[in-house]
Every structure is written in structure tokens, then in C-alpha cells.
Amino acid sequence: MTTEPPTPTTAPSPEQIRALPKALLHDHLDGGLRPQTIIDLADEVGYDGLPATEESALADWFAESADSGSLERYLSTFDQVLAVMQTPEALTRVARECVLDLASDGVVYAELRYAPEQHLRGGLDLDEVVLAVHRGVQEGMEEVAGSGRRPIVARTLLTAMRHAARSREIAELTVRHLGDGVAGFDIAGAEAGFPPSRHLDAFEFLRRENAHFTIHAGEAFGLPSIWEAIQWCGAERLGHGVRLVDDLTLDGVPVTEVETPYAEWTDDMLAAVRLGALAAYVRDRRIPLEMCPSSNLQTGAAPTIAAHPITLLDRLRFRVTLNTDNRLMSRTSMSGEMGLLVDRAGWELAHLRRVTVNALKSAFLPFDERLAIIEDVVKPAYDG
Ligand SMILES: O=c1[nH]cnc2c1ncn2[C@H]1C[C@H](O)[C@@H](CO)O1
Ligand SMILES: [Zn+2]
């Protein structure tokens, strides 16, 4: 067996990583609030159920509670955030701050997702929720552009909760607001027991309307969920998709059972990997995987950063993208996720460039706008 030549040491420093332009396709608006904002909003609306009222204690609570090994327990932490996101002012503030925080981290393109149906408790209707978020996103983008910093383009995805029964309604809401910064649709929530095919009606409607959608699949549940999302529902991208590795073997052994860290696999090992029919389809069709390493560690979908399938799938040239999922619960950022892969999984600048270009290629943004960001912003920064 031949081994790969030693890789040149081009690991970027944390400062370099921070300065790189980044593209983010999978970030939950309600999973990225500033802890102090949660405290302020709780004060304003008279919510007294927060587990802590001091900023760093609250930040610790979210990160520790989400670090549970189960998607269901991870998701239960959202109750605390949703309690304070029920007014137009709160939604606008959270959306504006989200855009500002991402821009400060070097993000130049972001798709922010949230479930409008979870923000109706204060008497708003679905359209009012979308408009309040849109206002905040616009304010954030204008503030960044006005400050002379590198601009950020931000869009939203409207999520339907997979355990609920409002997906058709949210799909219609998506289509109604395509001109208001909404770029597409998603389903999220607990995966086991709630297959995406329950929402077929919504997906068929979206396809008839030429609307984009992604589906959370292959996170807490395996290949059947991914297969349904793609082959029944027609998902353009997969939220997570990390369990796709269950369809990969090396010399008849599941790749997850091979002890060599993915970063150290030789070219011969990579060439010997056998793809099952579903994994082959995903790679052949260039279906983007919205991968979120830190989140997966917390929910138990992956064991460690070094053993996270993102490195193997990237090396096998699946269309991998790198994402934050929930910055508050995972105490992370795009720079944080990039830094982890550089420190623990052997990633270099070329890998970071590839996931950034992949994300832009896969964005729910018109083709010419995607191309402009790749050519004018990403390539000069990574190749300069
Ligand atoms: O990683 C996730 N998997 C499934 N559902 C998720 C994940 N992260 C957040 N959510 C849920 C909780 C939020 O309230 C909802 C909308 O953003 O989406
Ligand atoms: Zn998610």
C-alpha cells in the first residue's frame, strides 16, 4: 500500500481563520441568541423561568444542558429561548444581532432558519413573525454594510416542526414570502418516529412552486430517514446527513469501526471504500450535506471531532458544507468549527476553502449572486 505524501503544514492560525470569508447554510435563529439578550428579553416580557439570570451562568446552562447525548434532551433547551421570542420587537432584535454576530465572525453568506409556528404565543400570526424577522435581518445587513466592513448577505429558511402538522401551511408561508428575504423551507425537530414522508404534501407543493427546501435527516436516525428525505420528498440538501457513513465500508468493515483516524487514511484506503447505493446516489448527484460537528457531538450523532464523518466524507469528495447549527447550545461559531477541524482532524486551508465554495454552490440564492460571492469574495481571500 502506498501512503499519502506528508501534507504541507498549512494549518491556519485562529486569527487567520477568523478573517476568512465563510458561508453558513445551517444556523438556527433560535439557537444563536446572545445570553444577555435572553436575559434582557425575559425581563421585558416578565418571564421568570430562566435557569440563570447572569450572563455567563446562563451560557453555561445552555451548553451543559445541550451536552446530553440525546437529540430530544438537546432540543428541550429551546423552551427557554422560545419563551422570550414571542413579540415582533424580540424577533427583530434577535435577527439583527444574529446577522451582526455572524458578520463579526467573517460570515459573508448565511441562511438562518427558524420555525414561525413556534412564535405565535404572543398573538402574532405567521406572516407577522416572518416580517418581524425580516426587518431584523435587513437592519443587520445594512448596519454591517454601513460600517464599511465586508458585507454579509443573509436569507432565512422557514422550518416546520416534524412532530407537528403545519408543514403545508409553512410551505405556503414560504412561497408567499420568497420576496421578503425567505430563501427556502426546512423541517426540524425530533427525528425518530417522525419520518419526513409525513410531510409529503408540503414538499410536493414546494416543488410545484419551484421553491427550495432542505430536510434535517440522518442525525438521530439513520439511512431510512435520509433515503425518504431524498427519494420520497425530493430534498435538495440534507440537514446533517452524518449517518450516511452507515452506508460506507472498507474491506467489508463499516468505516466507523476502522481505528485509523480519517485524517490519516491513505489514498489506497480511500480508494477501497465501498459506497452503498444511497451514498453513491448522494455523492453522484452532488447533494449537499449541511454538517455540524459540535452539535453532533452533543446529541451523540458522532463520537469525537477526530472521528467525525465530515473528514472522511470530505476526503471522498461528497459535497460537504460546514455549519454551526446552534451557536448558543454548542457554544460555537463558524471560526470555532473551523478551528476544531484544524486542531483535531488535520484540516488545512484547502479544506476550509472547499467547504466554503461548496456551501455557496449549494446556497438557495440565485446562481449569479452565488457566483459573485465565490469569485469576488471567497477566492481572492483564500487564494491571495
Ligand atoms: O440539530 C437539530 N435537529 C433537529 N431539530 C433542531 C436542531 N437544532 C434545532 N432544531 C429545532 C429546534 C428549534 O426550535 C427549531 C427551529 O429552529 O429547530
Ligand atoms: Zn439543525
Automatic annotation (TrEMBL):
<comment type="similarity">
    <text>Belongs to the metallo-dependent hydrolases superfamily. Adenosine and AMP deaminases family. Adenosine deaminase subfamily.</text>
</comment>
<dbReference type="InterPro" id="IPR028893">
    <property type="entry name" value="A_deaminase"/>
</dbReference>
<dbReference type="GO" id="GO:0046103">
    <property type="term" value="P:inosine biosynthetic process"/>
</dbReference>
<keyword id="KW-0862">Zinc</keyword>
<keyword id="KW-0546">Nucleotide metabolism</keyword>
<keyword id="KW-0378">Hydrolase</keyword>
<dbReference type="GO" id="GO:0004000">
    <property type="term" value="F:adenosine deaminase activity"/>
</dbReference>
<feature type="binding site">
    <location>
        <position position="28"/>
    </location>
    <ligand>
        <name>Zn(2+)</name>
    </ligand>
</feature>
<dbReference type="GO" id="GO:0043103">
    <property type="term" value="P:hypoxanthine salvage"/>
</dbReference>
<feature type="domain" description="Adenosine deaminase">
    <location>
        <begin position="21"/>
        <end position="379"/>
    </location>
</feature>
<dbReference type="GO" id="GO:0008270">
    <property type="term" value="F:zinc ion binding"/>
</dbReference>
<feature type="binding site">
    <location>
        <position position="325"/>
    </location>
    <ligand>
        <name>Zn(2+)</name>
    </ligand>
</feature>
<protein>
    <recommendedName>
        <fullName>Adenosine deaminase</fullName>
        <ecNumber>3.5.4.4</ecNumber>
    </recommendedName>
</protein>
<dbReference type="Pfam" id="PF00962">
    <property type="entry name" value="A_deaminase"/>
</dbReference>
<dbReference type="GO" id="GO:0009168">
    <property type="term" value="P:purine ribonucleoside monophosphate biosynthetic process"/>
</dbReference>
<dbReference type="InterPro" id="IPR001365">
    <property type="entry name" value="A_deaminase_dom"/>
</dbReference>
<comment type="function">
    <text>Catalyzes the hydrolytic deamination of adenosine and 2-deoxyadenosine.</text>
</comment>
<dbReference type="GO" id="GO:0006154">
    <property type="term" value="P:adenosine catabolic process"/>
</dbReference>
<dbReference type="InterPro" id="IPR032466">
    <property type="entry name" value="Metal_Hydrolase"/>
</dbReference>
<feature type="binding site">
    <location>
        <position position="189"/>
    </location>
    <ligand>
        <name>substrate</name>
    </ligand>
</feature>
<dbReference type="InterPro" id="IPR006330">
    <property type="entry name" value="Ado/ade_deaminase"/>
</dbReference>
<feature type="active site" description="Proton donor">
    <location>
        <position position="219"/>
    </location>
</feature>
<dbReference type="GO" id="GO:0046936">
    <property type="term" value="F:2'-deoxyadenosine deaminase activity"/>
</dbReference>
<feature type="site" description="Important for catalytic activity">
    <location>
        <position position="240"/>
    </location>
</feature>
<feature type="binding site">
    <location>
        <position position="30"/>
    </location>
    <ligand>
        <name>substrate</name>
    </ligand>
</feature>
<dbReference type="GO" id="GO:0005829">
    <property type="term" value="C:cytosol"/>
</dbReference>
<feature type="binding site">
    <location>
        <position position="28"/>
    </location>
    <ligand>
        <name>substrate</name>
    </ligand>
</feature>
<keyword id="KW-0479">Metal-binding</keyword>
<feature type="binding site">
    <location>
        <position position="26"/>
    </location>
    <ligand>
        <name>Zn(2+)</name>
    </ligand>
</feature>
<dbReference type="GO" id="GO:0009117">
    <property type="term" value="P:nucleotide metabolic process"/>
</dbReference>
<feature type="binding site">
    <location>
        <position position="216"/>
    </location>
    <ligand>
        <name>Zn(2+)</name>
    </ligand>
</feature>
